[in-house]
Amino acid sequence: MSAGSTGFFAPLLRGVASGFRERGVCFSRKPNPPLACGSRPPSQGVKAKQRGFTYLGFLLFIAIAGAGLAAFADIASHAAQREKEAELLFRGNQFREGIASYYKKEQRYPMPVRHLRRLYPDPMSGAADWGLVEAPGGGVMGVYSKSDARPIKTGNFPLINQEFQDSQAYADWKFVHSPPGLPAGIEKSKPK
User: pTM value?
Assistant: First the structure.
């Protein structure tokens, strides 16, 4: 059945169309229908002003949304760096405890003894490329991150990490275990 004006629904459609005409709504199949049914042409000046006002409102919305997204990105970046710092403190302390465990075990066993659960990557660089702090008599006594980025956390460290106070870079956070044989007067060696 075609969508023309003949058929079962034609009288119903004519009735609906006449009801719309009574309310001032006009239908035409022409692309630009002439004004009919007592309607007046819209004022072109008012429409142009309304479009300009809408455009300015839209631009204001875009500016506010952009500023909000920029602030959110800054907060998210800051939170991600704090999370990396916390992970660096955890992993560095794991290395420190592993080195301490190694120095406490003076006996050698036929089977390997794991002093560190796994080789943690540096959270600042994402690679397992830690800087090593050499002991004065040879060997390793600590690790540090090679990142030169400025830390967010500069205070309120646990007692074991008190030397990190007011550090200027993550490379200054050295997770060092002083072996018992190290004399108290000897300064810890510089990183290589």
Answer: 0.60
